[in-house]
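Target chain:
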Amino acid sequence: MTKRITSVGASFGSSLRILRKERGMSLGDLARLVNYSRSHLSRVETGKKQPAEGLVRLCDEALGAKGSLLALAVRSPRRRSGTVSPVQLPRSIADFTGREEPLGQLDALLAEVHRQRDGQAVATVVEGAAGVGKTATVVHWSHRVRSHFPDGVLFADLQGFSLAGRPASSRQVLRNFMTALGAAPGYFSGELNDLAASYRSLLTGKRVLIVLDNAAGAEQVRPLLPASPQCMAVITSRSRLTGLVTRDGAHRITVPYLSGSECSGLLSRLAGTPLPLERDPCCECRYLPLTVRIAVEQREMVDGLELCERCGSESLLKYLCTTHDETSDMYTALSGSYRSLQPEAARALRLLGGCPGYVVTVSEAAKMLGVDIVRTRRVLDSLADIHLLHRSSREEYRFEKTVKGFARELAGHDTPLATYAGQGAGSC
């Protein structure tokens, strides 16, 4: 029994409770043996209070733990004095508009957190295309529900689709989170799994929201997920992160393109006056918040109709990459997605970008790529996974207009992305 306790990533308090029950002791029995109050021991077991070294030794002796509780307490992170309730959220956009459906889905998951008792912490993947407003939606919602997480809100940009460099290290994010939660730096040693176990121990009994923005993949995220049922993790990504859904039981929320009414509302707020979006009801344009904001800022339109016309224009990227701010540049955003692709998928995007129209059939793509149908579907699905294509049916995939413009610019280029992306952004 002692061996099992020391081998798991449990906190001192939870291990103490397990061992006490295994020995058939009530909390009152242990309180009499160690000369501490039942209420004090209860707070230790639930993680609300860190045990003093003397109490650890007394509990180890009283339960015959043979030093295992002592060893576990030494490995457990210590909080600095005082209550630490970090709120690390970036600022929310003042003119945030719409998004009622994903916000309502997040609210429903928050209600599930309140219903949890001894279950798993709620985790959800908020996914969608580059520029669709995943981060803005989650940050807006997180500010709105801060009061539901009195022990803090943690935020990290995992840089999964950033051109700046490699995705953020899970180890470094854990160290940053543990520092924010009050752990002393001396307890940050050990392997990644040990560090993650200490992080989960810090969260035991706490109600904390963890926002993991721009995730590259499931393996980057897993060590950062809490285990406490009172915590909630929200992960944003361009990838569908299927592994987190199938293996880790995460929920999935897809942030859609702006509807016509949402686009009209955003245009009106940005312009400071009602600005209806007049368009042909047969038009299939779908709007990205980032492109709408850039278009308004660039003053390239006189009314909503012209924006709709530009959505289908081959020159769309010409004015969406002139903001002189890479974090607000549609070309850079799509380049981040392209950079994450395996060579075969990157080649497919370049080849498909040179074809007329927006619909790609599996058979046509197979001929173009020179591979069999099964492999072709795998390649097309990898593009659809990060929203560079949309899977319309088993046989058809579709480009969105902005992505098609980007892929068309890539067509015929085989130079490395680091070189081409820089040239492309400067030549728009």
